[in-house]
Amino acid sequence: MRNTWTICRKELRSYFVSPVAYLLLAMFSLIFGFFFWNALGYFVIEGIEMQMRGQAIPMNINEQIIRPLLSNASVLGLFFIPMITMRLFAEEKRTGTIELLTTSPVRDLEIVLGKWSAALILYACLLLFTALNFSFLFLYGNPDWKPLAVGYLGLLLQAGGLLAIGTFISTLTKNQIIAGAATFGVCLLLWVLEWVSGYESATWATVLAYLSVITHFDSFGRGVIEIKDTVFYFTLIFLGLFFTSRSMESLRWRS
Amino acid sequence: MIRVQNLTKRYARATAVDQISFAVEKGQIVGFLGPNGAGKTTTMRMLTCFLPPSAGTATIAGFDVLEQPFEVKKRIGYLPESPPIYPEMETVEYLRFVGRLKGLSGAMLEERINYVCDRCFVADVKTKLLGKLSKGYRQRVGLAQAIIHNPDVLILDEPTAGLDPKQINETRDLIKSLAGDHTIILSTHILPEVEQTCEQVVIINKGKLVATDSVRNLQERARGAETILIEVAPRASAPDASLTLQIQQRLERIPGVSRVVCREPSGPDMVFEAESQHGQLIRGDLARAVVESGWDLNELRPASMSLEEIFLQLTGSETHSEPDKTPAPQRIPASEPNA
């Protein structure tokens, strides 16, 4: 546990002393800020139109702004996760520092957990900037905070799973670009798998759609913690980390 | 302290290390010598539990590298070929990170950091980024990293590679000063390094153990016969083949000289190589013979002969036509037939 924390701290440091973390934070908050601005713009126009028509359908900030924005954030995450995980092991393998880690009295799992948790903390920092946008809603409106909290939990779980996959892919190569590109491909695939459910209802299509990380986010977006979706994400995290530590072990046999 | 028995590493297509056995006692410095690609790094990686051996065993301080890697890792300090540093870290920060990985903490950790910084002469770059350090400093930080937890065994893979001559000397002195507290294995393909730093030498070639002996024994054996280089210039005539032959014959008549060879002439001087018989001193006689015959003696010096020749004979197939049947651990022959 202590070693995990040592490695996690070291990883966080290398994110934050290099421009990587700041670039990701800037891009993420810029793009999410744009989404927020748009969502708010539509919301205001809609409100004015309704007033002009004299309709009195209650408007809901949670349903009309927060929920779509949360799923936007989850999609945005798919693009940022490869950039977070690609260096984790690939860089150490290229520079040879992996020899330091594997010849120290530290267990493989501790190394893997340390690196993965550092990536998750960086992702949580990205989400913190989206919270800045939402705080304006609380300042000028009165949205319900509970669905928002559940939504964030969902985002973290989803990212945890994808980050674990990215960490695993990073152990497979010395080349950061290959690690990044492969992770991006897998993330994108896990996202679009859900599309098949639109035109096909056979069992295979249901299974494919079930594997998609997006379908499991819906419930969190609505503010509901579904056991099956939570289990799905935890399985993803567990499998990702399990394969990572297996792959680390095999580094020795393969190299 | 270190026991290696029939250690073997096979890859899909090649055998990198083939049945190597040797032992190192506590406090010794052992030079691991071999040409590039001989299997030095692979052996070291097996000793540090980075690679698992395909066959054979290696124990460090009584712990097997396969059975109890955790205990082994606690007791070794390892400096890989390129120092395993993170360029974005400061020296102290890096040492703190490594120290924590090795199980140090609190006041003990800070104390060790200060100690290794002084010991390895990196105290003046404590707050510098490792990426900005020169190669020599990186190497020293790498050494500091290896000794931070005061390990019983130090494994250093080419610790002086890529350093300038001054840094090489400093690093060698540093390594020598570390012996005693630590048992040290260092690999190198530079012979003088072994002569200067190590007490014991293990020579491997193409994955096979060629010889293991103490450096002193090797040197004594090498010194038995002496090779002298003589540069002679004729006073009056230009050098030609008959004169060369004449000088060669004159030198060969000196008692104690076993063989005289004429080297490629370069310029007006003729260069001869005279080998003495075992234990004979011939320098004075050579000089007198040249001068008394009326030639100019321009240079006379012992040819650098030592481990180098033995090494070449043992490792190079082109100099020695011995078939490739090198039996496992073998003592170095007392005197080479042509020496």
Automatic annotation (TrEMBL), chain A:
It is found in: Cell membrane. One of its GO terms (cellular component) is plasma membrane. Pfam families: ABC2_membrane_2. GO terms for molecular function: ABC-type transporter activity. InterPro entries: ABC-2_transporter_component (IPR051449). The keyword Magnesium does not apply. It is a multi-pass membrane protein. Coiled coil: none annotated. It comes from the Bacteria. Keywords: Cell membrane, Membrane, Transmembrane, Transmembrane helix. The chain crosses the membrane at residues 20-45, 65-84, 120-140, 152-170, 177-196, 231-248. This is ABC transporter. It comes from Paracidobacterium acidisoli.
From TrEMBL, chain B:
Pfam families: ABC_tran. Residues 2-231 form the ABC transporter domain. The keyword ATP-binding applies. PROSITE patterns: ABC_TRANSPORTER_2. Keywords: ATP-binding, Nucleotide-binding, Transport. Residues 316-339 are annotated as: Disordered. GO terms for molecular function: ATP binding; ATP hydrolysis activity. Belongs to the ABC transporter superfamily. This is ATP-binding cassette domain-containing protein.
